[in-house]
Amino acid sequence: MDLLNTLVDKGLRRELPTREEALAVLATSDDDVLDVVAAAGKVRRHWFGRRVKLNYLINMKSGLCPEDCSYCSQRLGSTAGILKYTWLKPDEASEAAAAGLAGGAKRVCLVASGRGPTDRDVDRVSATIKTIKDQNEGVEVCACLGLLSEGQAERLREAGADAYNHNLNTSEATYGDITTTHTYADRVDTVRKAHAAGLSACSGLIAGMGESDEDLVDVVFSLRELDPDSVPVNFLIPFEGTPLAKEWNLTPQRCLRILAMVRFVCPDIEVRIAGGREVHLRTLQPLALHLANSIFLGDYLTSEGQAGKADLEMIADAGFEVEGTGEVTLPEHRAARAGGGGCGSHAEAGGCGGSAGCGSHDEGGACGSHGGGGVCGSVPAAAPAPDKAAAAVATAAEPVVGEARPDLVAVRRRGTGTDLAPNA
Ligand code: SF4
Question: Which residues line ligand 1 (CB under 6 A)?
């Protein structure tokens, strides 16, 4: 296919595709999906080899948010039966970080619900970052605390944060349809503040909220313009108890096309499969590793992911390898730029490691001031967690718009905020 040959050539040269080319990737048929994956996989391997970076989410403060992001189980008015708790103590967060690192993660993402941090919250998170770094050598830390005020990014950077996550989530044109309590411009401003403070900027999107192909291309081109080091791609987890609970409109093939489009537009940027990986890609998850070079290990903020052990087995079975703490995530030209924000995993000069995944609260990364992909969920408190493997087998490939799928969404009931061990 000429389109794919052109996009591979451009990706290897770090040349931006046209909007029409990006739209054409999204418009390819299911019959062509393996060709699309193979083409985008060439670009992925050129810049990132077969490495997969593992990131680990720590939900520092869960639920009770005053913002109204439609996709979020922690939003104002959400009736999702998620865990609700206030700030973790530094030692509790450090213990959670140690579990993630033991499972193979090299970055931890500290996420808190809310519009944005107070100065006291920044003090609190700064103390947590110091504790985690003192107790876990070599760890990269990304903060995801919502909208930042003047000076807060600098303070987080001084405290040792490597990165800051805040997702754009969707196109500027549709932003007002999913959230009314803050604006798209607010989000762009926070990503710029993080960048300016020398933090590695992480910013991504949520797919599956009813947006058009044009919206998806718009947000990905906007992200590319902001020049983050990492782009988490969340697939909406439609939680019962949120306005988007019935928005089931993704197929595994559609998810692969979206990831391929993001890879072609952001060839040398860390692309992370964030929340919704298990729910929407299901048995096609391994194919997505040919497109993205980063995932979250284990559970998400308010929903459960597949077991960390299953993540590691999937990576090995698909012929990929977990990126080590001594390896630099980003290609040399990116890792070497900006003294503080370059990311690349512990290059001597202080680059971080490749960007994180949260989203100011997406699911994958947190919420949407906090991201989207993986966060919350809404399954009645008494419901047992579904068997993910069985659910995957039983699930039809075609999306079912308008019907809730509690069999695919499990509220997190282990790890931080509970007495149970995490599944990292
Ligand atoms: S995405 Fe973040 S800001 Fe929005 S409702 Fe959820 S926790 Fe609050």
Answer: 65, 67, 69, 72, 74-75, 113, 115, 146, 361, 367-370
